[in-house]
Each structure stands twice: as C-alpha cells, then as structure tokens.
Amino acid sequence: MLTVLCLSGAVTVYILYSRASAPDRTSPEVTVVNYLQAFLIDRNDARAEAHTCQDSTGLGAIERFRDEIVARERELEVSFSINIERVTVFQAGSSDAVVAAVVRRSASVDGLQQSLTDGWRFELRDLDGWRVCRAELA
Fold first, then answer.
1. Is the pTM of this model over 0.85?
2. Which of 2, 67, 105, 132 has the fewest CB atoms below 10 angstroms from its CB?
3. Using an 8 Å Cβ cutoff, are 34 and 23 in contact?
4. How far apart are CA 21 and CA 106, in angstroms?
C-alpha cells in the first residue's frame, strides 16, 4: 500500500511539474511576449527556442537586433532595460497569425535617461501551440 501511495504521489508531482514548466503557447500574443522575454530580456536561447518554429531562418533580424543591443551595452558600459509594448494581433487564421509589437530599450547614458523604440512584425504558426517563425522590423 505504501509503495502504491508513493508511486502515485511521484506521478502527480511529475504531471504538475510538467504543466507548470511547459511554455505557454496558447495564443499568438502570449507566445510573442514569452519569446521576446526569453530572447531579449533573459537572453535564454533554450527557453526562446521553445517558442520558435524548427526552421528559424526567419529570425535572423531579431538575432542581429539582440547582438546590436549587447554590443551597445558593452560600448556604452550600460545595461538596457527592455520593455515589450503594444502587442497586437492584426491578422489571425486558424493556423497562422501576424503579431505587431514595440520593443523599447531604455538606459541612463551620461546621466541622461534615453529610450529608443522599434516596431516589430512577427509571423506565427500553430504547430501544436503557437510558434514564432519570422520576425522583421516593421
């Protein structure tokens, strides 16, 4: 009886952990926010990859954008605060969607608060959950 109880407890913990740690890809806008959070803010490529299509060749522009941010941080000896704003689905089908978002970079440079915004357009596909397949400056 004790073995069955322990085994069922272990299975329950495993299922709850799997659900809690699974990436949220339930809608196009949530997927874009989670992708940008992982890729630009946390700079966690493994977590970001959980939100992308297998063929990520359409993500070169956002990869270059992050490289540019990292280079500017090094050059200016600052750390940018990145905010994701105005995330809007402007075209959605049953398995394809286009999402617009604004990425704001802010930092204090030479004692002055500075901020830049860039509009982005993301193409997503529903592949057992929404995934970012393409990103380009809007």
1. no
2. 2
3. yes
4. 30
